[in-house]
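Quick review question:
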């Protein structure tokens, strides 16, 4: 048996143990899944909530120290449900599906149609852009991998870039979602630092987070990476918390989940 055969067998076994599911509704993915990742019932919702183009407008966020910032979706409705499912339910296979959607939506990755198996990607335009991926570190160590760490791991496989756990927190952080915009900036100021020995010198770093709200977390992380020797920092998230453009809002008569 060649290595390739063995890898194929492993993937088939994994797909039996952990069948692939639509990240937005949890339905099993069948042969009609779009891009091998979104069930037919969610295609329209996925399109509605996509952030096009993925580059985030500075006016809606308080960014600094970042060269580029991108998100695949708006943080609303089914996308919010999908992210919360990963964060609260610890369901790492949903996290991998969301990372796949980031690759498709942000970098134009072209997935081979392989129903039931993880899509393979070739010629991803982002491949040569970055020197490494760095996940935003969790507020506190829980023993479980954080959602940004899971996203970075899968994106590293897709974009073929090493993942470096380069950042750590230097003091306890209050949860950002409890704070006002001004408090968020103060809360994260100076709290992130590079781990000793993290090899990011002169690299263009892709910083990975789940949600970008004010941008204060990714900006504070970017500053720490630059202080640690990074050449420049780009940030990417599953979703950006911005007001939905009018043409993407649900009509008030439609039912909210
Ligand atoms: Zn679905």
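Suggested answer, residue by residue:
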């Amino acid at each position: 048996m060649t290595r390739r055969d063995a890898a194929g067998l492993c993937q088939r076994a994994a797909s039996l143990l952990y069948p692939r599911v639509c990240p937005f509704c949890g339905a099993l993915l069948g042969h009609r899944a779009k891009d091998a990742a979104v069930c037919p019932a969610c295609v329209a919702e996925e399109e509605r909530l996509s952030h096009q183009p993925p580059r985030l407008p500075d006016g809606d966020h308080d960014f600094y120290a970042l060269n580029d910032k991108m998100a695949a979706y708006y943080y609303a409705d089914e996308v919010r449900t999908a992210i919360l499912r990963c964060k609260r339910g610890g369901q790492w296979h949903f996290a991998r599906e969301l990372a796949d959607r980031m690759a498709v939506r942000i970098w134009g990755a072209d997935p081979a149609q392989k129903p039931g198996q993880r899509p393979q990607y070739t010629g991803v335009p982002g491949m040569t852009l970055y020197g490494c991926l760095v996940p935003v570190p969790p507020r506190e160590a829980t023993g479980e991998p954080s959602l940004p760490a899971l996203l970075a791991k899968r994106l590293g496989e897709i974009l073929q870039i090493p993942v470096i756990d380069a950042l750590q927190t230097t003091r306890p952080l209050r949860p950002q979602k409890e704070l006002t915009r001004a408090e968020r900036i103060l809360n994260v100021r100076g709290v992130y630092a590079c781990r000793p020995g993290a090899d990011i010198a002169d690299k263009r770093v892709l910083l990975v987070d789940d949600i970008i709200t004010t941008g204060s977390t990714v900006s504070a992380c970017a500053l720490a990476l630059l202080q640690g020797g990074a050449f420049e920092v780009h940030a990417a998230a599953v979703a950006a918390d911005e007001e939905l453009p009018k043409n993407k809002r649900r009509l008030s008569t439609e039912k909210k989940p």
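Why it works: The domain at 8-244 is CATH 3.40.50 (Rossmann fold). The chain has a mean pLDDT of 87.
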